[in-house]
Request: fold
Amino acid sequence: MPALDAHAARLAAGAGAPFAGVNFVHTDHQYLAGLHPRGVPAAARRVARAHGFSPYVVVRRKALVLDDVRDYPRFSPNEAVDFSGIRAYLGAPLTDHDGFVLGTLWAAAREPRDWGREALALVKTLAAEVAPLVRGTAGA
Reply:
């Protein structure tokens, strides 16, 4: 979805991250509806639920900041670390008017980083902007 790709690119640029996305988490998979960098084929945008940290954001219903995922025993064995080399993650929930989590807006990097308060504020602000766009599209 080009509009969601654009929001992912805004987060990547603002947070200084090489990767960012808008993600819908389903029972058995995740769908990367928006992605930066662009050019990922539609078929590759569907990934296993265990591959990444967005399912934790959905369950927690609040932002998750991992400066180095290997510092957290709960997160370090994740497939995103082993398969994609992700070492840092920043994500915020996309919620509807009733507080139901529709998905996530996230940024990631292959090296540890201190995301800082500015990046956390940015992902929360952008998530609030993206949420109205995804209402009605979360069934992808």
Q: What stands out?
A: The CA atoms of residues 97 and 132 lie 9 Å apart. Residues 2-134 form a domain with the Beta-Lactamase fold (CATH 3.30.450.40). The longest helix spans residues 116-134. The radius of gyration is 13 Å.
